[in-house]
Amino acid sequence: MFSYSHYPMLKDHTRMEAFRQAIFQTVAPGDIVLDLGAGTGILAFWALQAGAQKVFAVEQTSILRTARQIARQNHLDGRICFIRGDSRDVQLPEQADLMICELLGSFGIEEDILPLSLDARRRFLKRGARLIPQVLTLFVVPVEAPETYDSISFWEDVYGFDYRPMKVYLTNSTWVEAFSPRALLSDPKELKRIDLRANSETHLKASIECLIRRRGVLHGFCGFFSAQLAPGILLSNSPLGAPTHWNQRFFPSPEPAELRQGDKVLMDLSTSRVKGLLHFNWTIRICSNGRVTRLPGLSTFLGMLDSTEDLRAFSVSPGAGAHS
Q1: Same structural domain, 140 and 276
Q2: Which of 9, 51, 162, 209 has the highest count of CB atoms within 10 angstroms of its CB?
Q3: CB atoms within 10 A of CB 50
Q4: Is 300 in the same domain as 194?
Q5: 288 burial class (0-12, 13-18, 19+ CB within 10 angstroms)?
C-alpha cells in the first residue's frame, strides 16, 4: 500500500513550499477543490487550511487508504471526499472551482498530466475555474555525461562476451539522472510551453536547435520542466537550480559524438501512445562546418519491443488517441 516514493516527494522542500504558497494564494474561501492525483493528501489538507469548503481527492492507488487515515487523524476527514480510481472513469457530485494537479514527472509530462488535466478540466470544473499549475514549460539541453552513458557502452564487452544487442534497448530508453551544470554543452532551450488552462493537446511534437558553447562529447539531452503554479510562483527541476526529488530526464544519443564550439545540435521530439503507454520518440542532428549529420532515430517503444505484432501496432497508430 505505501510507496517509498512518497518520502522523497514530501521531503522535497522546493516542491512542497512552492505548492503550499500557490495553494494559499489561489484558494478562495468556500471553494470546491479537486485534487487530482492526491497521494497522501497533503495538498488537499493545505487547500482546506486555505479556506476551501470541500476537497474531492482522486487517487488511483491504494495510498488513498492511508490518506483517509491521515485526514481522520488530523480531524479533516469531514470535508474531504476520497475517490479511488482512474480520474477518467470517475464522476464528481459537483463541479470544482479549482483543480490541483501535481502529476509532474522529471520531464513534466510523463505522468500523463496533459490528457488527465484536459479530461478533468472538461468534466469536473466550473467555467472560469482555476488550475495549479497554470503553465508547464519543457526544456532540453545537450549534455556531456560519460558516466551516465556508461550504462549503454558497458554492453559492448561483458566479461569477454559481445552484448551489443542490449544497447538497442538502452539507447531507446530514457531515465532519471541528476546533471550538474558542468555537463551542459549549451544553454537550455525551451521546447514547448503548455498553458494547462486552455490546452487541448494530449501529445507533444516539437523541435529545437542548440548552439554548442564549448568543445565536448555529446552523450544525449537532459530534459526538465518549469511550472508556473500561480502568478509569481515557479517550480523547476532545472540542473541550474536547487536540487529536487525529480532530478532530470536523460534522452541518450544513439552514439557519442564529438562537438566543437559553434556547432549546432538539433533535436526533434514527439510522444506517441501504444496500448495506453506513453512513449518518447526523438531524433538528433548535428550541424558542423555546414554539414548535417542525422543520427538514427530512437523511441522508448523500441526499448520495450517484445514482438513484431507490437511493432505493427506502433506503425499503424503512432499517435493514436491518449487513453482511448
Answers
A1: yes
A2: 9
A3: 19
A4: yes
A5: middle
